[in-house]
Amino acid sequence: MSQQPRVVGIAGSLRDHSYTRLSVERTLREAGRRGARTELLDLREYDLPVYDGDADEPGDAAGLAAAVRAADSVVLGTPSYHGSYSSVLKTALDYCGFDEFEDTTVGLLCVAGGSFPTTPLEHLRSVCRALNAWVVPHQAGIPGVSGKFEDGELIDEGLAERVDVLGRRVVEYANIEPDPRCAEAIQNKGAGG
Q1: Are 36 and 7 in contact (CB under 8 A)?
Q2: Radius of gyration, alpha carbons of the chain
Q3: Model confidence, pTM
Q4: Distance (Å) of CA 184 to CA 3, 55, 66, 123, 191
Q5: Cα angle vertex 107, ends 102, 110, to 5°?
Q6: Cα 190 to Cα 3, 97, 138, distances in angstroms
Q7: The NADPH-dependent FMN reductase-like domain covers which part of the protein (predicted)?
């Protein structure tokens, strides 16, 4: 890869001691070891009111969108909430669109208190495909998360490897040429081109 890719991670959790944030940070560390410039977009630091298309001043939405738009790859991390992804991540994604995600590589990560978080990962994959992003086939899910961390570190070796592989893949595929647009994106009136 001739150019150093830029990888941003978005932690879709506002908790102080967030397993989601810790997991996204680990993914970004691995991406950094693979030569990427990385940045965590910590949603606790953004003023993002619930999306209202008529709002004149949507807080820090422009800054968030600009950071995502500048990325070659984006890691989306979320806790599993009621079988889907978090509302704070949904709000952040509502402020982004085709300008931010089209032809961008996206890696998905989800933590869950219970069983493997398949459904939230599927929901995020659908959203990203509709925005013409290229979603990495590999994804990282961390079930039973509270028992998988100790002193801020992921201690389950198998899960740690999945998270690390995600970091490698978002660098490896940062400049992949995406497939033609999916049906959802073609029919979406917001899609450019």
Answers
A1: yes
A2: 16
A3: 0.90
A4: 31, 27, 24, 14, 10
A5: 130
A6: 30, 8, 28
A7: 5-142
Which stretches does DSSP call E strand in 73-178? 73-79, 105-111, 134-142, 149-150, 153-154
Domain boundaries defined on the chain: 6-187
The CATH H-level superfamily of 6-187 is Flavodoxin domain (3.40.50.360)
Q: Which residue spans within 46-88 are E strands per DSSP?
A: 73-79
What is the pLDDT tens value at each position of the chain, 193 positions in all?
448 999 999 999 999 999 999 999 999 999 999 999 999 999 999 999 999 888 877 889 999 999 999 999 999 999 999 999 999 999 999 999 999 999 899 999 999 998 889 999 999 999 999 999 999 999 999 999 999 999 999 999 999 999 999 999 999 999 887 666 666 656 666 554 4
CA–CA distance, 77 with 46 (Å, rounded to integer): 16
**How far apart, in whole angstroms, are the C-alpha atoms of residue 130 and residue 67?**
20
Closest to 71 in 3D by CA, of 34, 107, 95, 44? 107
CA dihedral 24, 178, 138, 142 (to 10 degrees): 40
